[in-house]
Write a structure and sequence with these properties.
The protein has 104 residues and is α+β, with helices and mostly antiparallel strands. 46% of the residues lie in helices and 33% in strands. The protein has two helices and three strands, in the order ααβββ. It has helices at residues 3-39, 47-57, and strands spanning 66-72, 75-88, 91-103. A hairpin with a 2-residue loop joins β1 (66-72) and β2 (75-88). The longest helix is centred in the first third of the chain and has 37 residues, at 3-39. The protein starts with a helix and ends with a strand.
């Protein structure tokens, strides 16, 4: 009787852990790409190269966020957005994740 509840709890914990890994990795990737855009013009010479650099720094779950680059008032701004499906056994919930970093 308690077995299915324990299994749902364990699956939920693993799914939540993957979501937290994804958001942490997105924050790391946008910060690294914003720094690269500001301090390493040979590697990050265009917006396409900056987005590719951010994609190479992302090591999250099996979802692929959409990275964007913009030149803003604060400097070089890199953003990422993705929708993660939190799966807890028989219950699924879509959670939007986003990260933004700006480096002068």
């Amino acid at each position: 009787l308690v077995g299915p509840l324990v299994i749902m709890l364990l699956v939920g914990i693993m799914s939540l852990s993957l979501m937290l890994l994804s958001i942490g990795s997105m924050h790391f990737a946008v910060q690294a790409a914003a720094r690269c855009a500001s301090g390493n013009p040979t590697v990050c010479s265009s917006s396409t190269a900056i987005v590719a650099y951010a994609n190479s720094r992302y090591f999250g779950a099996l979802i692929t966020p959409v990275f964007t680059y913009a030149s803003a008032a604060c400097g070089n701004q890199v953003s990422a957005a993705v929708t993660y499906t939190l799966d807890v056994g028989g219950y699924k919930q879509s959670v939007p994740l986003s990260a933004t970093s700006c480096f002068p």
